[in-house]
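User: Round two. Same drill as before: sequence, then structure, for each protein.

Assistant: Same drill it is. First protein:
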Amino acid sequence: MVRVFFLVVFCGLFFGALCQEKYVSQGLLKATATISPSFMLNRSEQNIYLNGYLEYYVDDHLSLRGETYLFIDGTNSNPDYSHFIHQAVRTYFGAFLHAGKKNWDKYLGLQPGLTLMRPNSSVSSDLKACPSFALHAGTTYYVWKYFHFFADIAYVNSIYRGTSIGSMKTDEIIFSAGLGFQLMTKKN
């Protein structure tokens, strides 16, 4: 299975290098869905999210992107404590700046958003809306006119307020990578 994966990647890179078609331009519409691991910065905990985004390129160097992280599960490396998050949905919308050549794209992005979170019952049992933001850095390699490979690292910041012990930071670093799909919505 691993050999097949590397064969597909190699063929995509080889034929992508031969074609050198320009993929990043105004009207590009991209979408992904993947499983994204994370680690929390304020506690010894790792979480897993189902992550997806939809992105539209306003021009060659600017895109708008909506993104959602749905909490699946978490683990705490300290056996005396259970994981902090019981339920969570993080949703963001923002702008991304792009730089790259031909079929290789690098980007930075900022997204304000909202996190709906319910921590473990030992902290609080209330589902609350928390203001949030995400900072992104990543890269995309376009293999063909309909799909691409991507890697993205995001810092997400939320503060859960109103617990018996005060406000709690839920900062995380979330890593996403995988296969994405795109369509060109405008003729160039």
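Second protein:
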Amino acid sequence: MVRRREAHNDGRPTIQTRAGEGSEIAEVTILGSGSRPPLVYLHCWPADTEHMGALASGLEDRQVISLPPPPRVHGRYPTDFGQWATHYDRLIDSLELDGPLYLAGWSVAFHFCFEIARRRADGERPCRLLVSIDSEGPDVHANPRNLRRLAAKLDDATTWPEARSILVDDVGRNIIQTSESAVQLAIPARWRVAMAARHPASAFWWKASSRLAPLRIASFGQCHRYQAIPTPALIFATSRTISRHTDEMLGWRHLLVGPVEVVPVPGSHWTLLDHARGPNLVARLDATLRAADELGS
């Protein structure tokens, strides 16, 4: 049974819920039935247990295949982005799917969908469609490990305040968050758990979860390696996420260069697939998948 998060009035989870902890799937899980090509969903967070159920309940004549995250090694998830992506990619190969490959991911999980599509772009089994569920793109232009991209982004800035925002908000935030995560992982796991329980309102201990800290490090290490791909994509975005970006594609504009459709959806990052809002989102997804089926037939 999935533990439900206590929430604020606007649907945001309380900080006590500790992102990245809770119920989990440990093996490939198939939900639903049907003859149409399945939707492959990358399970990255415990909340995905509910999300994959919401997707499967609304997709007609189509299975949802949820792939588990990589196993922990000595109690820790990988901090290497490539290990996460390779783990999912191998599971996809093991499915031996006959039809087109449709990949979906919520939040950071979509980053792995993107990487898998990039790896398969020139192969025999390319990804036919990417589905982003409120995923913010990586700060590829603002990552200090790629000074050429950073310089180009600063050169594009029309005003000094905009350039300052890039340096302070993007570069500075990346460095601080990644350094914070490295410190958190250096703390013994039992101490992290005990301190999180003792200080439930502390953002530091909330972010020290066994999953969130490794993922932040992995994402930072990958930022300068991203390359654009022409794979078609469907992007679901909440108004709150859209408000954080000047890019209408939530930061993916320079990376998803094929046909892309952005669909604004109600709710927050945590509630867009709940029982009240999920059915409309899934109906829109179902229509897009059916159109993709027809193109591939």
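Confidence is low (pLDDT under 50) at residues 1-21.

User: Perfect.
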